[in-house]
Amino acid sequence: MSDLGLGIDAGGTQTRWALADAAGAIVAEGSVAGMSATQMGSTAGRDAVRGIFAMLATQVLAAGRPVRVCAGLTGFDGVSTQAAQMLAEALKLAPSSVGMRNDVEIAYLDSFAPGEGYLVYAGTGSIAAFIDADGQFHRAGGRGVTLDDGGGGFWIAREAMRHIWRLEDEQPGVWQQSAMARAVFAQVGGSDWSLSRQFIYGQDRGAIGRLALAVAASADTDPVARDILERAGGELARIALALVGRHGARPIALGGRAAHLHPLIAQSMRAALPAELSMEQRHMLAHHAAARIALHSHH
Questions:
Q1: Which of 63, 70, 118, 269 has minimal CB crowding within 10 Å?
Q2: pTM for this predicted structure
Q3: Residue ranges of the alpha helices (H) in the chain?
């Protein structure tokens, strides 16, 4: 078999991997649990990352042995080498064979050549990215779900939960009349506050972000869910316009799993952008892009 490149897209919800051959064809792919670079700041977090890399290595090596790796890691600042060393150890590769970037950089390069356009990426969180012609990375948003990340999956879930519990404060039991609340509580496991509290405060951000699926599923029958998704599109337009204001008009690509939750998100984002700006929604497979980058870049 020809040389294989391993691409990894590690986000809050899941970590996806793909192996590509020299021609760029994807020969195998899979997924393990989600992770983030911020976990590298604590012993427990590092242990969790090590465990995820071990599971990933087991899957990958059963499919083929990569010669080079390009890994996109959410929250990666480009400074720490610890995660790359851990990954190299798990795959039994030299550290020099493993390149690590921010996951958004890989998604950008999958959509545009440097200097060409702006990527708005909505996953668990949200960010707008621009890599200029000199290879410099510029961003708007992407500050993390505690601070902002408007329009991402976590934000959508939090807005829904906030609305539901504010109404419950005023009229206990009124949730039963709301399609969105019924869908959310079905996913949480019940309508008791203790279950919501455990869900929001006892789980990782990716698991909370997946609650956005329940919001999207109820949008066609629940006006509150509809409003949340429309506001999500407005939030994504805001970060796109921040980059347009700083770097000039360029085409905009919208990607990420949250962006595809419901057509309302892209529609309301489009409506919030000036008509002369082109916007295209794309299905992005960042782990495929990373696998191809792995073989064609020398770290």
A1: 63
A2: 0.81
A3: 43-63, 82-91, 103-111, 153-170, 179-188, 193-201, 205-209, 212-217, 223-247, 263-272, 286-296
